Each structure stands twice: as C-alpha cells, then as structure tokens.
Amino acid sequence: MPGAVAAVGLLLLGVTTLLPAQDASQWQPSPAFPLPTSSLAIVQRAQPHIPFTVAGERGAVFGQQDGSFEAWNFPTKIASHFGITAEVAGYPIPIELSEYAAGIEVNPDRTTITYSHAAFTVKQHIFAARGGRSDAGAVVFFEISSIRPLSLTIRFTPDMLRMWPAPNFGRPSAEWVAVGQSGYYILHTDNDA
Fold it and tell me: Rounded distance, CA 102 to CA 99, Å?
C-alpha cells in the first residue's frame, strides 16, 4: 500500500457468534468513510500507563493508552493482552506498535489511539455498540497509512472468563474447524454452563 490509506477491522463478538476465518490474501480494505468530529472530543498525547475505557450496553474495552486492552462481551471477558506488531516491507525488524503510541482522541462515540512511525501511521478506532439490537460487544477498526507495504500481526490471550462471582473453569483451548480451504476457531472451556 505505498502512499495509500487502507482500513481493516477486527470484530470482537460474543461467545455464541462464530465468524469463519478467511485467507488474509483475500481481505480487501474497506472503502474510506469519514468519521464525524465532535466539539466534545478530548485530544492529547498518549500516556502509556494511563487507562481508557470504551463501554456500551453489551460490551466494553478496558485498556492502557499504549493500545493494550481487554475486551468484554458482558458478562464474559473474551480476550486480554491485546497487542500489535507491524512489519514494513524491506525492514527486517518487527515494530511493536505500543512503543509508538503518539496520541489518543476520545469522542462520545469512539476512542482512537494513533501510532506514529517514520514509515507509517496507524489509527486504532474502538467502538462499543450502544442501543439497538446489536450483539457486538466491541469493534476495533484500523486506519493505515504507509509509505511501504505494511502487515500487522494482532495478538491477544483468549480468556472466556465470566464476571465475578460466577465460577470459571480453566483457560480456553482452541479447536480449528476446517471449512473448505478456510475455517474458524472455536474456544472451549471446562465450564458446562
């Protein structure tokens, strides 16, 4: 994507929702769309160890301004220790984005963390559904601008832990379910509820 802007999304859904995985070579950037500006926006330099929250009726993201977070689809924590590594074409060393968190913008409808590097800018937009019939707990959308081809590796710890005082039974284990040349993961726990 030399000199281009692309956008990709990551949807963090509840435990009952299954999304089939796709071959990454088939992914296409979303068309650009404007995000409304608000006179209520708070914009400041990112402070890595200061928390932020994006909360909705069905889920929330609780994180640090370096971009790390945990995601909840109430009443279950579905993922934690979220992090991103970038790889720039022609540059052999992976780049940990948390070290390049430059700014945070909090709007009534979203929070955006901007990572700024000499070769790219990545904006991580975080939404949580409010009202309506949406089952989505939280949505993370990336806006990418890069002078060279860039790939992001997103990593997190799957948790599947219910809110206290509900009992939890161990860590989830993953099972790959093949569907044609693609497939999806199912997370299992020892919890029978």
Answer: 9
